[in-house]
Amino acid sequence: MYGEQHLLTYKSGKETTFVTILSIDLSFRQLLWWLGGGFVSFLLASHIPPFPFVGYWGYAPHFLPFIIGIVFSLLKHPTTDLPLGKYVALWLQFKRRKKVYY
After folding, report:
1. Which of 6, 69, 74, 87 has its CA 20 to 30 A from that of 20?
2. Predicted structure pTM score
3. How does DSSP assign the chain, residue by residue?
């Protein structure tokens, strides 16, 4: 009727902030990417020794999974506006599926 409001919620498309780290608002999905990369980095550091004779740069490969996790959590594909992790998963799914041509 006239004057009644519909109870439809507004969908902004922005993910809900789950935690804030160093003024970076992270959603739950992004936090999982950061934690996964940190966990794999920790496993690498505990099982693989650093490269000798290069100082602190010998530890650089241990941080690569963490950096990859940050990249996959924060970047989006420019044309589809999907998160990079979801885009790569969908792309791999498309490449692996059986193609049928009629």
Report:
1. 87
2. 0.73
3. -TT----PPP---PPPP-EEETTEEE-HHHHHHHHHHHHHHHHHHHHSPPPTTSGGGGGHHHHHHHHHHHHHHH-B-TTT--BHHHHHHHHHHHHHSPP---
Pair of tokens at residue 49: 């020794």
Tokens (6 digits) for 56: 């602190």
| Residue range 51-99, pLDDT digits in tens | 888 888 888 888 999 999 999 988 999 998 888 988 999 999 999 998 8
Radius of gyration of the chain (CA): 21
Q: Residue 82 has which token pair?
A: 């999907």
Whole-angstrom distance, CA of residue 95 vs CA of residue 97: 6
State the Cα torsion 44-67-52-54 to the nearest 10°.
-170
The span from the CA of 39 to the CA of 47, in Å, is 12
